[in-house]
Amino acid sequence: MEFQTIIEPFRIKTVEPIRRTTRAQRLEAIQEAGYNPFLLKAEDVLIDLLTDSGTGAMSSRQWAGMMVGDESYAGARSFYRFEAAVREITGFKHILPTHQGRAAERILFGSALKPGDIVPNNTHFDTTRANVEYRKAIALDIPIPEARDPKRYHPFKGNMDLEKLEQVLRENPGRVPLVMITITNNSGGGQPVSMANIRGASEIAHRYGVPLFIDACRFAENAWFIKMREEGYADKSPLEIAQELFSYADGATMSAKKDGMANIGGFLAMNDDALAQKCRNMEILGEGFPTYGGLAGYDLEAIAVGLFEALNEDYLRYRIRSIEYLGERMKKVGIPFVEPTGGHAVYIDARELLPHIPWYEYPAWALSLVLYVEGGIRSVEIGSVMFGRQPDGTEKPAAMELVRLAFPRRVYTQSHVDYLAEVLDYIKGLVPRIRGVRIVEEPPVLRHFTARFEPAHGALVVDKE
Ligand code: F0G
User: Fold this and answer.
1) From 1.10.260.40, 3.30.50.10, 3.20.20.140, 3.90.1150.10, which CATH number describes the 23-52+312-455 domain?
2) Ligand 1 test: best mutation among 48, 127, 134, 213, most atoms within 8 Å of CB?
3) Which residue out of 105, 186, 344, 402 has the highest number of ligand 1 atoms within 8 Å of its CB and is therefore the one to mutate?
4) Ligand 1, closest atom to CA 256?
5) How many whole angstroms from 127 Cα to the centroid of ligand 1?
6) Structural contact between residues 189 and 157, judged by C-beta atoms closer than 8 angstroms
7) Hey, whose CA ends up nearest to atom 16 of ligand 1?
8) Ligand 1, closest atom to CA 406?
9) pLDDT one-digit tens code per residue, 161-181
10) Residue ranges per structural domain of the chain
11) CATH class for the region spanning 60-309
């Protein structure tokens, strides 16, 4: 008998209490935080779905690995273990550890881009875009058109528009130093990219003599979707699928805080010897000697173990199913979200839920605040606060107004998800009374992290419709 209930494939050995607060306490906390969930004290949050990055629970094997970490400045045993793990999965020649993903981006773009260059990507994550733009280059998003329609089903909604890619390369000779594919496509709903799409992007890029880099943060989740949905992969292991997808690329940036199952860490990997040399020199400037790259030896050990735990089939089945389960609950309640559900998060479609809030009063931001005040749940806006401000200082609406509920790995159980569904059901009833916000203070770049807001109409939830 094959039973249908998918359980958390682990036992809990260590627990960390979470704290209940009252609505009045939360209202005070969010006011103090300038109506910015990033500025809340984590202790004032009940269920923290701000990010799946660095927030996962490590396994007993990872903790054991940490005890044998080698803290030598250069040539530590832990580095070679880390390098072997990354190489087994990705096959790349040069592997540079970094303290997290954006450090890999900064080193790569700092070494490969010049002003006016163009980097095509299915969709840049915010730090990736910021690192490209910091080099005065253009971060060009070219997802397939289906990606921008939250209601449209597509098995690989993270795919890149390959015709556009070809057009960009054709029309801009010498201006595209690399092509990037983000797996899964985080800003576009945590949606997977198919093997065929990666292979296609690789062929096109290589025809123009341009290397393909993979932003590999959630490569294991992406591999699972390929196994489940793409013809010819059902009998392959997630590791074999990952190996194949990396084989089409020339390098990768990775935040090990996601599918590295670690609390900190990342890497930059590539095959090109000359570029690697340039990157190593930059790494020494900012991160440290290339065999530790801003990490402790014990972090390298935790990642070396974690990368393979992320590829475990029982884990991936539970991981993807738990996100899908929340989607099913939300459907029952009538909360619109990006469908199908992605790998690490559910993305509420705030534009659809709150049509009475104009984009310049940031509907998704407002909804994330209501989620906190009513239920103690912290989420993140992926909308016009995060992406509305253009490099020239003007504003335009983001492609979508989303609230992301991102799940830390191996941290919350089904009852947390059930609680969340109950809160969302309650919030659904408040919808006509929810109002937007305005920005009162903002920094020039990556404003969502530190900007301060206030309710645009007196309160987040007004008394009367
Ligand atoms: N690329 C993608 C697709 C990401 O999702 C992230 C981080 C990064 C790069 C940068 O990695 O944080 O280690 O420097 N995403 C986190 C998130 C922060 O919440 O989605 P990092």
Assistant:
1) 3.90.1150.10
2) 127
3) 186
4) 13
5) 7
6) yes
7) 53
8) 19
9) 999 999 999 999 999 999 999
10) 23-52+312-455, 60-309
11) alpha beta
Ligand 1 midpoint to CA 399 (Å) = 19
The preferred substitution site among 100, 141, 258, 387 for testing ligand 1, maximizing ligand atoms within 8 Å of CB, is 258
Q: CA separation (Å) from 464 to 306, 359, 403, 433?
A: 50, 22, 24, 6
pTM exceeds 0.85, yes or no: yes
Ligand 1 center from residue 133 Cα (angstroms): 16
Which residues form the pocket of ligand 1, taking CB atoms under 6 Å from any ligand atom? Answer: 51, 53, 100-102, 125, 127-128, 182, 186, 215, 217, 255, 257, 266
Inter-CA distances, 249 with 156, 180, 219, 253, 369, Å:
19, 9, 13, 11, 40
Q: Note the pLDDT of residue 151.
A: 87
Q: 261: Cβ–Cβ under 8 A, 6 or more apart, which residues?
A: 56, 58, 59, 62, 302, 303, 305, 306, 307, 309, 310, 409, 410
Per-residue pLDDT reduced to its tens digit, 228-250: 999 999 999 999 999 999 999 99
